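# step 3/5: fold
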Amino acid sequence: MNPNWNEDLPIYRQLRDRVVAMILEGVLGDGDVLPSVRNVAAEYRLNPLTVLKGYQELVDEGLVEKKRGRGMFVTDGARRQLLKDERRRFIDKEWPIVRATIERLGLDAAKLLDEVKQSNKAGGMND
């Protein structure tokens, strides 16, 4: 996790978002244990209650489960659920803005996608 915090968003929310990113990127998988509240608090010089609040949001969302005396673990299917939710959010919230920008700039969406694919191939990225 990155120790640099954004001043525009509560730290507990940023912590929650970082764990979500780790799940989406496959760094944390189903059944993996999260770093302990105490360790995260000490490593990043945070109040343990701040860390706990971030973790509790993950529990409330069903992405993490508490196992008394053992810690917090990524729930089965968390990544699949996050991908579904993030895709829906992108289509509902971000895509209309992207589409409007494409239209405003007079770009052709199909040509734009072809350019992105060519750029990815040239840069060694997979599509």
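# step 4/5: annotate
Strands lie at 64-67, 71-74.
# step 5/5: archive (pending)
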